[in-house]
Amino acid sequence: MSEDSKATHNKRLVIDGFRRFAAGDVEVLRTLLREDFVEHSPDNPSGREAFMAFIARAPVARARLDLKRVVADDDHVVTHYHMTTDDDPRGVAVVDIWRMVDGRIAEHWDVLQPVPDAARTPHGMF
């Protein structure tokens, strides 16, 4: 598979999985994550089953997720989205970096930034 078609394929897998997860389907992670999945975010567990159990209890599983952009390059896919809850309507800007191996997620990194008052970001966060 060429680098472009591999990136396009991986991007499609992540977008589909993101949409399903955002609609409440936490089980989609079982098909996306490798069993030996490695998590790089502090305090989050590695391994598919441990990570799924953690995420199912995490605020992200009940949040509204508004996907803003997706960038793919070879075996990496990056998502940028706005995560909000009823308790936090301004929410958080999130960037997830996923490394794909054979059509499944092998590794994950993330960066989160609270969305400040609009006056502090005249050009917007997204």
Write structural notes for this entry.
- By secondary structure, the protein is α+β, with helices and mostly antiparallel strands.
- Helix content is 28%, strand content 37%.
- Strands 1-5-4-3-2 form a five-stranded mixed β-sheet.
- The longest helix has 20 residues, at 3-22.
- The termini are far apart.
Briefly characterize the structure.
With 126 residues, this protein is of the alpha+beta class. The chain has helices at 3-22, 28-32, 48-57; strands at 33-39, 64-73, 76-84, 92-101, 104-114.
* Distance linking N and C termini: 33 Å
Number of strands: 5
The radius of gyration over CA amounts to 15 Å
Q: Uncertain spans, ≥5 residues at pLDDT below 50? A: none
Q: What share of the residues does DSSP label as strand, in percent?
A: 35-45%
Protein traits:
126 residues; alpha+beta; five-stranded mixed β-sheet; 5 strands; 37% strand; globular
Q: What's the SSE blueprint?
A:
Elements (H helix, E strand, L loop, with lengths): L2 H20 L5 H5 E7 L8 H10 L6 E10 L2 E9 L7 E10 L2 E11 L12
Parallel strand pairs: 1-5
Antiparallel strand pairs: 2-3, 3-4, 4-5
